[in-house]
Amino acid sequence: MPDQLAEFQKDVTDVQNSLAAVSKSQAEMGKRLAALESKAGTDDTVKRSEIADLKARLDTIVRQTTATADKVDLVNARVDRLSQDVEAARDAARRQTAPAPVPSGGPDVDTAALAAGATVAGATRPAGAAPASGGSAPSPSALYASAYADFSKGNYPLAVSGFEEYAQRYPDTELADNAMYWIGECHFSQGSYKAAIDAFDAMLEKYPKSDKAAAANLKKALAFVQLNQIGQGIEQLRFVTSTYPGTDEARIAADRLQALGKP
């Protein structure tokens, strides 16, 4: 897993380099366009069609910039999830050699869920599967851990099923809003952007003060952009920057607005 983490981090660097190259091309194209427009005012030999063609190429570069920046976020998310998996595996190993009760406060939310999944590996049912005949319902920690493990592995349909079951069975727990958030993330990762928006809306409506609210609103904005609903995407990005100033989500939203030419 450390080798995988290093590989993902290399992916992040490669995509960031691509983003820098595209941004440089965008800046150069903008300068050329400005120069042509200035020349067109005094030189009739400059064809309007050439300017129109350059504008179209500039629009394409803007879209490429946004798409590349989205890839940066996706690879970063993969690195974060893998880091959590590594910590969870280490926690599980420590517990096996020196068992100790979990403090009442509990460790970090999703790391705790993965750690719980590690300790019950082979004993819990797949997320979304029905309990065995005559058996009891799964514990909250086991159900959440199973669903989150499926999400980390890219088993999105199973993860959605598990998170939906968790949200329905345990709506008053601290992880209920997280479960609904990850449903949206699963749909987003599958390219089902409309379903992702619906899932984030459902989570925000039920848990408006969730610590995942900023992330959910940002992902809504990115989903709108992916659906080519640029106007709604820009409006949503501006909502994130104004509502959650100083957060990573606000910074990412500001970067997207800059890439779309709407700072």
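Next protein, fold it too.
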Amino acid sequence: MYTEGIFRPVLEVALSDNGLISNPIRALVDSGSDKNLFPALVAESLNIKLDKLNSKTLMGIGGVRIKAYTAKINLHLYKFSFRTNIDFSYEQRIPILGRNGFFNLFKSIKFKEEEKFLDIELKDA
């Protein structure tokens, strides 16, 4: 994905919970994000009742604060599936894959700027 000539690494993922699976979601792979953060509408499509979860305040760039709810759900990437935490917020529009809950699931994630490519290496089984 390119915005103003800048490569933005995006992966197509799906989320599942309660026997439901989301449509494919294009999520930004963000090494500057501490956590995974998705729009609340994705959780609602999986029948995750956010009002039943504890809320917390997350702080982002420029000190912006948003209210979020954390759920442990399945993240699907290609033929692989991982159980991980994802924060959901009504104030978030762009799905973001962050360091805790995505990056830490893999042995390495390399941003290859010149090739405009993202290289992900699985942990040894």
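About the second fold: The longest strand covers residues 65-77.
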